[in-house]
Design a protein that fits this description.
Length: 211
């Protein structure tokens, strides 16, 4: 018997490895405006609070204006599927969750359009609901996005679990009143995650925990 009716996922660093495309878009902006380039590992430590914050944290202090954020959003939207791919084992995990009767959803700080496009591209119709930034709800770690997903799915918080890869996700789950499991293959080091809560190291291990 499955433990949850609904499994809610973060997207970047949890289901999809988006880091190369994010790094490329960051460095497009850095090069265009003469700002210092960022390494992949620097971007890895920066992401998690949406594109605007990613750019602000990447650029020199005080340099980012609204026009830069808008340009960054456009560039990333046009290039968000160049190198991005699911982490190994994720597709099989989602299919097995669906086969077990679980509802699957995504709540992401990625822009809503890009989040929906990437989920459809890589996972087809496996997700019952996808909500991202710009859908009229505050960004995570505010719990409103997760609560909206649960409402659309018709599930209570006691019937659901939130899966993520960062301190933002752990706080989001707490704010929404959900159990949380963190994955170590994403954007934060395992030592950091273990201080925040339960951590798993592979999609197979996560699946065993969920079913």
């Amino acid at each position: 018997m499955k433990k949850y009716r609904a499994v809610l996922f973060d997207l970047d660093g949890t289901l999809l490895d988006t880091l190369d495309d994010l790094t490329d878009s960051v460095n497009y902006m850095m090069e265009k405006y003469g700002w210092p380039r960022r390494t992949r590992e620097e971007v890895r430590a920066i992401v998690g609070n949406g594109l605007a914050k990613t750019l602000e944290r990447s650029a020199p202090a005080g340099k980012v204006e609204e026009r830069h954020v808008a340009e960054f959003r456009r560039h990333y939207a046009e290039n968000c599927a160049v190198k991005t791919a699911p982490y190994p084992g994720v597709m099989d995990m989602l299919e097995r969750l669906r086969d077990s009767g679980c509802r699957i959803a995504v709540a992401s700080n990625k822009d809503d359009g890009a989040a929906n496009d990437l989920v459809r591209l890589h996972f087809g119709d496996l997700a019952d609901c996808v909500i991202g930034t710009g859908a009229g709800l505050p960004r995570k770690p505010d719990g409103a996005m997760v609560k909206a997903v649960l409402e659309r799915l018709g599930c209570s918080r006691d019937e659901a679990v939130y899966i993520g890869d960062s301190e933002v996700d752990a706080q989001t789950a707490e704010n929404a009143g959900l159990c949380c499991i963190l994955v170590s293959w994403g954007f934060r080091d395992k030592a950091v995650l273990e201080k925040l809560g339960e951590t798993v190291d592979s999609p197979e291990e996560l699946l065993k925990r969920l079913l």
